[in-house]
Amino acid sequence: MTDYLARAEIDIEATPERVWAVLTDPEQLKELWFGAEVETDWVVGSPITWTGEWEGKPFQDKGEVLEVDPGRLLRFTHFSPLTGQDDVPENYHTLTWTLDGSTHLTLTQDNNGSPEEAEHSTGMWTTLLGKVKSAAEVI
């Protein structure tokens, strides 16, 4: 595990409950996760999978739900075979979504291999948070 952390934050003009709904609804998730189908029951210990296509290549990413506190915190692991790394625990990232009362959403991703990898992930997650904001503020 490395100390390189990717971090993205955004303020959203919606209730934490509305943002939570966006983060956990299968239809919303497909839009957020670049077209991938996300499957899980959001129960701690349950698997989570992302199935889709990236740059013409089919993929299935996977992880495990670690912590669920509706409207406040969502934490799960994530591994993508597209990285070319071995499917071993030290190559999994932990994604932590934190909502506060004013609906400030923070996403952190640990275990990035370098500062450049963390910077790339931060850019990707910043884009995704913009999509969460747009979806949550619709209603």
UniProtKB/TrEMBL annotation:
Signal peptide positions (record): none
Gene3D superfamilies: 3.30.530.20
Domain Activator of Hsp90 ATPase homologue 1/2-like C-terminal: 14-134
Spans traversing the lipid bilayer: none
Pfam families: AHSA1
Family: Belongs to the AHA1 family.
Protein name, as recorded: Activator of Hsp90 ATPase homologue 1/2-like C-terminal domain-containing protein
Lineage summary: Bacteria, Bacillati, Actinomycetota, Actinomycetes, Propionibacteriales
